[in-house]
Amino acid sequence: MSILTERQAVEAALDAARWAPSVHNTQPWSFAVKGDEIALRADVDRQLRVEDVPGRELLISCGAALYTMRTALRCAGFEPVVRVLPDPDRPSLVATVRPGAPAEPDELTLLMGGEIERRRTHRAAFTDLTVPERLLDALALGAMGEGARLAVVGEPTAVEVIAALTRAAQGVQAQDRRFTLEVIRWARPPAASRSDGVPAGAYPRTAPRTDPFFPQRDYAWRHDWGTEPDRSATSAGVVAVLTTARDGREDWITAGQALQRVLLHASAHDVSAAFHTQALEMHHLREFLRHELLSGEFPQMIMRLGITFEEKESVRRPLSDLLG
């Protein structure tokens, strides 16, 4: 028995999609609605021209929006009907999605649907509270269900290698003025009226060092922006890498859907994620990671999972800006 009408379900899916995670909160998507079908399009004007030349992070972000719409439709009582990259002549058309047959949402779907607006990205260290192994296993199963793999890195030496690659990439990028200016472009000053980018209340002014040290993007570069983090929290948390067997545009969308499934499920258990894409933006470092630690699979996201009691703010563009 459907909870909402098809039209109401479409409206709920559109509103939910706004809250998907995206690189630097660029929100690089737009939507068009025809009847009961939503077209999800990549907004290439919001692509990071220095950091994300191939558009990989752009499509991961769009994949996260697609999974969010799927979840919202299921919560509304419909099984989503999805076509990914349906038109080769329209490369910016990521997918179409519409409500299909009525379907009763299960408990986990409803749980994840409740996290769509609540989930936040963390950009500092975590507390020493442990992420349950049972939850990590469930997150890995969820990623597998979307066609990706969530590799939890338990070996300390491997964790240190990933941290070292992140430090190396961050060190090189920090010396590149183009990278730095692109990051700063998406850092919102305090009290800014913009509805995109990373708010000053969502990143630390100076982040405490995790052990091992995973550096964050310097959104506060040459500014006194950001918040004062919890200095007692120093844990790196659980390090995990999201991978796919192949590395094409459809695989990047798959990675985005798997990522959002993991994040919503984790958030439902009060577990947050911090992202580290620096090493994945440098071809040789990404290839090293792929061949030396990931059995030839392609790394799409490096993340740390953990528990924090810090409240983060977030902003999203109004739906009226996204429809066209």
TrEMBL record:
Gene3D superfamilies: NADH Oxidase. Signal peptide: none annotated. InterPro entries: Nitroreductase, Nitroreductase-like, Nitroreductase/BluB. Residues 7-36 form the Nitroreductase domain. The keyword Flavoprotein applies. Keywords: Flavoprotein, FMN, Oxidoreductase. One of its GO terms (molecular function) is oxidoreductase activity. The keyword Protein transport does not apply. This is Nitroreductase family protein. It comes from Nonomuraea pusilla.
